[in-house]
């Protein structure tokens, strides 16, 4: 039969007989085992973010082929690096700092992806409106996440978000108030206060309580609400 060649694990393999025709080499990179070798052999440092790629210009004295770079070329690359850094906007610097922190916070609290996306949309508007100027970025990150949690009516408490983000409750509460007042209306989102029913299901699942017990607890809450018990927060 005719050979059917396909690349598998760096080799060109015939799918009919399994014979390796040739190897596929990608570049001529040298391995680095120590910290000094990593620093000396690093040429570029690509930084990928959800809001766009960014490549940092190298500061080494050799090019990709190992040839030394003259003083004029070094001065040129140094100037280009300064120009590139000057072209980065303050919003992009803000995003570079905020995105990893938000990702770490959502991972620590086991927040679903759709809530994390809503939180990032909220924080993007916060940064574009420059609400973070002179204020705590961590407070707005935690506030954006909790606002997204309340928009989707997810069973998480404000104290849990504050504890996971290592941010004082007062700071998060102040940032949350600004988000509710100035950001959520522009996105068409509605802040929903936490309900006791959602917490009943959450605590019931954590304690492995039967569904019948959870239903009884919800009926008790509804009866108490009809009798005038205020339970919003």
Descriptive report:
- The chain is mainly α and 233 residues long.
- It folds into 3 domains: 49-88, no CATH class; 91-187, Cyclin A, domain 1, CATH 1.10.472.10; 196-226.
- It has helices at residues 35-41, 71-87, 90-109, 113-128, 137-151, 158-165, 169-182, 184-187, 196-206, 211-226, and strands at residues 5-8, 11-14, 20-23, 45-49, 52-56.
- Strands 1-2-3 form a 3-stranded antiparallel beta sheet, with no helix packed on it.
- A hairpin with a 2-residue loop joins strand 1 (5-8) and strand 2 (11-14).
- Helix 5 packs across helix 7 (169-182).
- It is flat, with a radius of gyration of 27 Å.
- The mean pLDDT is 79.
- This is Transcription factor TFIIB cyclin-like domain-containing protein.
- One of its GO terms (cellular component) is transcription preinitiation complex.
- Pfam families: TFIIB.
- One of its GO terms (biological process) is transcription preinitiation complex assembly.
Element layout with pairings:
Blueprint lengths: L4 E4 L2 E4 L5 E4 L11 H7 L3 E5 L2 E5 L14 H17 L2 H20 L3 H16 L8 H15 L6 H8 L3 H14 L1 H4 L8 H11 L4 H16 L7
Antiparallel strand pairs: 1-2, 2-3, 4-5
Helix pairs in contact: 3-4, 3-5, 4-5, 5-6, 5-7, 9-10
What percentage of residues falls in helices of 4 or more residues?
40-55%
Strand content: 5-15%
Terminal Cα separation, in Å?
73 Å
Morphology: flat
What's the multimeric state?
single chain
Count of discrete alpha- or pi-helical segments spanning 4 or more residues: 10
- Helix/sheet category: mainly alpha
CATH superfamily of the largest domain: Cyclin-like
Mean pLDDT: 79
Largest sheet: 3 strands, antiparallel
Count of folded domains: 3
Q: Could you name the CATH class of the largest domain?
A: Mainly Alpha
CATH topological fold name of the largest domain: Cyclin A, domain 1
Total beta strands: 5
Please give the CATH architecture of the largest domain: Orthogonal Bundle
Record the strand order, biggest sheet.
1-2-3
The radius of gyration is 27 Å
Low-confidence stretches: none
- Along the chain, the helix and strand elements come as EEEHEEHHHHHHHHH
